Amino acid sequence: MTAAGRPAGDRLSIGAVLSRLRAEFPDVTISKIRFLEAEGLVTPARTASGYRQFSAADVERLRFVLSAQRDRYLPLKVIREQLAAADAAPERPRVLRAVPADGLPTAEDFVERPVRRMTREELLADAGIEPGVLAELEDYGLIRPGEAGLYDTVSAQIAATAKALAAFGIEPRHLRGFRAAADREVGLVEQIVAPMRKDGQADETVRELAALSVGLHTLLVKAGLRGIAGK
Fold first, then answer.
1. Cys staple from 210: which of 35, 110, 122, 178, with CB 3.0 to 4.6 Å?
2. What pLDDT is stored for residue 148 in this prediction?
3. 152: which strand partners?
4. 215 versus 112: which is more confidently predicted?
């Protein structure tokens, strides 16, 4: 095992997993991770001497569980069911995301939360993509580095989602419309809330409008896709 707590084969010790999760989930503890393991939500491998060895997929599951508890207040039973449903189709590429029962976002989804800043190398490792893919995502405006050329956890999530879409033959160039649509929605929301900034009402209104906008987009896509699978 290395000094960083990484066992052979890119497996992580429980301490290394804690370090990875702490930036996004400050309240997580080793005891919490052990509890989630005891509940069967994650099953790390074990060394011959009994030490836990977490894979990248294990860390993804933990992020899913912690997000579902923090952002959706979902009980473990529901989270377990969602994980079981995802595990039932292992041949399909997927990115675990905590979603509400009706599949629509709420204003709570758009509350500003602390994000972890990361270098280009960290983003590539976190999202599991090659430098060329990141360059394409930047070229098409899907990812934009911030100050000092750093990225954040949202950028890593966008990159990971783009990777999952690529498994279906959808390339970054195909996603330009998503960027343009998002920018139009942001522009519309900005026009509405601009007069509210002086009254301190902008933040709450932004969250409500964002949830309604994304919810409408989701419903329109659902309506448009209805019946395609059977054609």
1. 110
2. 86
3. 117
4. 215
Find tokens 């060329």 and name the residue.
132
Tokens of 124: 């590539």
The per-residue pLDDT for range 42-96, each reduced to its tens digit, is: 999 999 888 999 999 899 999 999 988 887 777 888 888 888 877 776 554 444 5
CA-angle at 230, arms to 228 and 231, nearest 5°: 65
The token pair that represents 46 in the structure block: 């074990």
Q: Position of tokens 């890593």?
A: 156
